[in-house]
């Protein structure tokens, strides 16, 4: 095992896209930011120095940070922000994880431009459990706004409205030639006939689940969220914000220039966003003047059937070397409804603002870090009375509920005893509107044991759960008007954020946190905080 050191200078840089230049917050002046390379077993030290005018914090999305929430990054959950001109070193070990993950700012909407890939090579000797690719490349999907994102968000919040959707999607920071002035902002990868390539695909978009395809080629999915899967071949993938997907693509078609493309999956009655980002899959020797071929394999924006079929194909590899250790006995059952309600807002345009909620509770961000408050037993910062069930039962996905849309506000956490096995059913509701929500749990991977459309039926659905080889991941899409059941063992003590990874919904309060208590032995307790932890 090695020690990998990185220096992250958070700094503002002028970047131009779509015929328009603007200052953006970057790491080391790069957009997207630098890739973190490490090997399973390594220690990683990342010194973040904040030379921008915003408070900053960075989250290493999908790294478990065992006993070490201090390095997890979500502002006011596990740390106070790194103030301008200050620095903090994120120090963590990578144990038992290998694959593609990513990092992003975890404060305000700064992850719009502050993000990058994390590539963890398997511990030697434990090569990929699939044919060794000839080469690999990161494909980071993102979004671009022509205006300053923080300004747009602030203006929208004052009116109680959602901010405008982005002006383009991007692949590795580039919108591709279908957008104006973007010929030179096009990502291209060169391939040789007959060779196989590993694409490490990351959805860093703020608010869109995306389909991705390579024109003329199929892809073989081999890993999701840094966990190996049973390989399967597909014409397109679906990837939600927060998720990562590794695919193998063989350059086995007529040598030519092909588009790789991504566009949003939108099956809910929400604003339509049909922007397609393209990049180029370029066979060696083909002149770059030739117009690429568009993918016909991308599903339609509202192709719910493709989305459900795709999700059903994801299975853990589950071999002796990489077993799926699904908790078979559940100590604690939780059921959380996802809703978008409305609360009074006298200064807002319609006198109301949208408040998103879990079990009708809209999470209120604290002013100090929750992990500190937990570790030092500071009272008055949060309560641990988050309910395991919604306040009342109703027809979750039936007729729209228009009465009583008010939510209750609070910094309420759910306390879980060390090593408890938890089953959590996330249930979408028709409160305001059904919609798909990608849920991310910090500090853990979980098993997606079941999913379905409509209301979860506790009498019938558990019998259909996959307890053998369910997909293991850190972010899961709860289907529009449906439910998803996840299981995990609470063996990582600390305070762990759980939220919808659509930034708009997180901002509206679709979030909560678990306090996982210490176990009895010293190696089951939260580590002491590092001495340079940013003060509150
Ligand atoms: Cu990638 Cu709390 O998020």
Q: Would you mind describing this structure in some detail?
A:
It is a single chain. The chain is mainly beta. The chain has three domains: 1-126, Cupredoxins -  blue copper proteins (Immunoglobulin-like); 129-315, Sandwich (Immunoglobulin-like), CATH 2.60.40.420; 332-524, Immunoglobulin-like, CATH 2.60.40.420. It contains four helices and 32 strands. Strand 22, helix 3 and strand 23 (408-410) form a beta-alpha-beta unit. The longest helix has 11 residues, at 149-159. The radius of gyration is 22 Å and the shape is globular. Residues 59, 61, 74, 104, 106, 242, 440, 442, 497, 499, 501 line the site of CU-O-CU linkage. Pfam families: Cu-oxidase, Cu-oxidase_2, Cu-oxidase_3. It catalyses: 4 hydroquinone + O2 = 4 benzosemiquinone + 2 H2O. This is Laccase. One of its GO terms (molecular function) is copper ion binding.
């Amino acid at each position: 095992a090695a020690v990998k050191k990185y220096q992250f200078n958070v700094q503002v840089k002028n970047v131009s896209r779509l015929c328009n230049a603007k200052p953006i917050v970057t790491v080391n002046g790069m957009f997207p930011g630098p890739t973190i390379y490490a090997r399973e077993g390594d220690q990683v030290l990342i010194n973040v120095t904040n030379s921008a005018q915003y408070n900053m914090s960075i989250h290493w999305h999908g790294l478990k940070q065992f006993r070490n929430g201090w390095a997890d990054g979500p502002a006011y959950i596990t740390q106070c922000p790194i103030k301008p001109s200050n620095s903090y070193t994120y120090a963590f070990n990578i144990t038992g994880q290998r694959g593609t993950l990513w990092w992003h700012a975890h404060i305000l909407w700064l992850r719009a431009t502050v993000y990058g890939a994390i590539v963890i090579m398997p511990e030697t000797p434990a090569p990929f459990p699939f044919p060794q690719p000839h080469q690999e490349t990161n494909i980071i999907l993102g979004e671009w706004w022509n205006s300053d994102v923080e300004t747009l968000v602030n203006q929208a919040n004052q009116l109680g409205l959602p901010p405008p959707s982005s002006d383009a999607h991007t692949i590795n920071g580039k919108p591709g030639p279908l957008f104006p002035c973007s010929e030179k902002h096009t990502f291209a990868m060169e391939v040789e006939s007959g060779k196989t390539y590993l694409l490490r695909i990351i959805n860093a978009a703020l608010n869109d689940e995306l389909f991705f395809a390579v024109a003329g080629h199929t892809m073989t999915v081999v890993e999701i969220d840094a966990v190996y899967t049973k390989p399967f071949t597909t014409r397109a993938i679906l990837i939600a914000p927060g998720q990562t997907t590794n695919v193998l693509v063989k350059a086995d078609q007529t040598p030519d220039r092909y588009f790789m493309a991504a566009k949003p999956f939108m099956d809910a009655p929400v604003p339509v966003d049909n922007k397609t980002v393209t990049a180029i899959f370029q066979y060696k020797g083909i002149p770059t003047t030739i117009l690429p071929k568009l993918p016909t394999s991308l599903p339609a924006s509202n192709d719910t059937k493709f989305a459900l079929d795709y999700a059903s194909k994801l299975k853990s590899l589950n071999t002796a070397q990489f077993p799926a250790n699904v908790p078979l006995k559940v100590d604690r059952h939780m059921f959380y409804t996802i809703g978008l309600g409305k609360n009074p807002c006298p200064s807002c345009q319609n006198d109301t603002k949208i408040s998103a909620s879990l079990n009708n509770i809209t999470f209120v961000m604290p002013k100090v870090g929750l992990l500190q408050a937990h570790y030092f037993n500071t009272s008055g910062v949060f309560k641990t009375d988050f309910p395991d069930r919604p306040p009342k039962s109703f027809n979750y996905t039936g007729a729209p509920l228009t009465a009583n849309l008010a939510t209750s506000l609070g910094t309420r956490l759910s306390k879980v005893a060390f090593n408890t096995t938890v089953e959590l059913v996330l249930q979408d509701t028709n409160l305001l509107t059904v919609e798909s929500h990608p849920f991310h749990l910090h500090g853990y991977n979980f098993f997606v044991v079941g999913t379905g459309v409509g209301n979860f039926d506790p009498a019938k659905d558990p019998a259909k759960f996959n307890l053998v080889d369910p997909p293991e991941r850190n972010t899961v899409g709860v289907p529009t008007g449906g439910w998803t059941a996840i299981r995990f063992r609470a063996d990582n003590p600390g305070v762990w954020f759980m939220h919808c990874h659509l930034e708009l919904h997180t901002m509206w309060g679709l979030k909560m946190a678990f306090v996982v208590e210490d176990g009895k032995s010293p190696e089951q307790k939260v580590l002491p905080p590092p001495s340079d932890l940013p003060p509150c």
